[in-house]
Design goal:
The chain is an alpha/beta fold. The chain has two domains: about 220 residues, Alpha-beta prism (UDP-n-acetylglucosamine1-carboxyvinyl-transferase, Chain); about 210 residues, UDP-n-acetylglucosamine1-carboxyvinyl-transferase, Chain. The protein has a four-stranded mixed sheet with strand order 22-23-1-24, covered by helices on one side. The protein has a four-stranded mixed sheet with strand order 2-15-17-16. It has a four-stranded mixed sheet with strand order 4-5-3-14, covered by helices on one side. Strand 6, helix 3 and strand 7 form a beta-alpha-beta unit. The radius of gyration is 21 Å and the shape is globular. Shikimate-3-phosphate (S3P) binds next to helix 1 and helix 6.
């Protein structure tokens, strides 16, 4: 998909069958960044070739790293060691990818050269103070514009810190861990909630001394990283769209194969179970230090639920899809403690509420969440994906259960995390088509 592509969705189809989802976005970003810092050659299979991760790919190449691409998803990467990256010739463009800019900031502050991290107008609106603050406490020299990108990084020496994170965020945690790896003494992070731990798992598998004690994570600097040999699991955050589609418009069981079920990511499974969904984990195995399973979902009616606390961070990317599920669930769904949704690619509470209202939904927006009473009748309309992949995909789901045709405009962004989403829905029996002005 390119340009201002739109998706035309017809309701009425009943889905069934089996599907796979692309590689995990968080792990794909990390495979490139950590592989670049390793001493030696990494092998990566099952990489997500999406807009966000390909932005990281280009940044890593601009830092002097050679990547040999064997297919859309498999590559060999020649790591340059902890301090062997090369000064980039131009600002590094992270496009829309928050994970790219925040993790790379942690790496670049400890390199012996200056660099600039930048991105799209959308990324330039997102808060960077959450990473620049701890990095400056470590001694990093960063100039920014009111706490936003572009970030002008001087590069240099860092000292270890003990840092209590004000919000649960895997991007912030990972940024500080990466800077900690390059610092002169140990760094300890205290996290307020269980944010995804892929960085810790991967660093440990590469030989880095990362220790966890409850909510405290400590990294000792200096150790050379061994290269990766990694098969990226399917992305549970992409599978979530298929799970919700199956629950809302499934005909019989739908199986999604090879999905990562790291416990810091399975909030969506817990929430859907609370809403009455039957999702079975079959063939549970471990691949490259991450638990993986086939998910088998039984279509069925959902009931509303109250969601807050630690569950929020474990399902943070799934709330746009959950808002659609809540419009179809019987009774009241209340989400609280989720103000972080307002600083994602878009303000996902405001944007999803606004777009679902165009389809006739009634949503009560709250500062840290929302309240939806279902089931509600949705009527097809023209809606806007706002260049936010998870918003656009959620609106496609809403279209599947609306009356009449729904057109999701500004849907190119689906490629950022789930290339092949529409084709996968078609394969399961949905009537949706991509139409494109380039
Ligand atoms: C991510 C962390 C989360 C998540 C994002 C990916 C990561 O962001 O929303 O899609 O890969 O570390 P926050 O760290 O801002 O919560």
């Amino acid at each position: 998909m390119n340009g201002t592509q739109q998706v035309r969705v017809q309701p009425g189809a009943r889905l069934s069958g089996a599907a796979r989802v692309p590689g995990d976005k968080s792990i794909s970003h990390r495979a490139l960044i950590l592989g670049a810092l390793a001493s030696g050659t990494s092998q990566v299979r099952g990489f997500l070739p999406g807009g966000d991760t390909l932005a990281t790919w280009r940044c890593i190449e601009a830092l002097g790293v050679t990547i040999e691409r064997h297919s859309a998803t498999d590559f060999t990467l020649h790591g340059r060691g902890l301090r062997g990256l090369q000064a980039p010739q131009a600002p590094l463009n992270c496009v829309h990818a928050g994970t790219a800019i925040r993790l790379l900031a942690g790496v670049l502050v400890g390199q012996p050269f200056a660099s600039v991290l930048d991105g799209s107008a959308q990324l330039r609106r997102r808060p960077m103070e959450r990473v620049t603050r701890p990095l400056r406490l470590m001694g990093a020299q960063i100039a920014d514009t009111d706490g936003r990108a572009p970030l002008h990084i001087a590069g240099g020496r860092l000292s270890g810190i003990t840092y209590e994170m004000p919000v649960a965020s895997a991007q912030v945690k990972s940024c500080v861990l990466l800077a900690g790896l390059l610092a002169e003494d140990a760094t300890t992070i205290i996290e307020p909630g269980p944010a995804r731990d892929h960085t810790e798992r991967m660093l440990r598998s590469m030989g880095a001394p990362v220790r966890q004690d409850g909510r405290c994570i400590e990294i000792a600097p200096g150790t050379e990283l061994q290269p990766l040999d990694l098969t990226v699991p399917g992305d549970l955050s992409s599978a979530a769209f298929l799970l919700v589609a199956a629950l809302l418009v499934g005909r019989e069981t739908i199986t999604i194969e090879g999905v990562g079920i790291n416990p810091t990511r399975t909030g969506i499974l817990d929430i859907l179970a609370r809403m009455g969904a039957q999702i079975e984990r079959r063939n549970v195995r471990e691949e490259a230090g991450e638990p993986v399973a086939d998910l088998v979902v039984q279509p069925g009616a959902l009931a509303g639920a109250e969601i807050g606390g630690d569950l929020i961070v474990r399902a943070i990317d799934e709330f746009p899809a959950l808002m659609v599920a809540a419009t179809q669930a019987e009774g009241e769904t209340i989400v609280r403690d989720a103000a972080e949704l307002r600083v994602k690619e878009t303000d996902r509470i405001a944007v999803m509420s606004g777009e679902l209202r165009k389809l006739g939904a009634e949503i009560e927006e709250r500062p840290g969440g929302f309240r939806i009473v279902g089931p509600q009748r949705l009527r097809g309309a023209i809606v806007d994906g706002h260049d936010d992949h998870r918003v656009a995909m959620s609106l496609v789901l809403a279209g599947l259960c609306a009356e009449g045709e729904t057109v999701v405009e500004d849907a190119r962004c689906i490629e950022d995390s789930f290339p092949g989403f529409i084709e996968t829905l078609q394969q399961l029996g949905a009537a949706a088509a991509i139409e494109g002005t380039q």
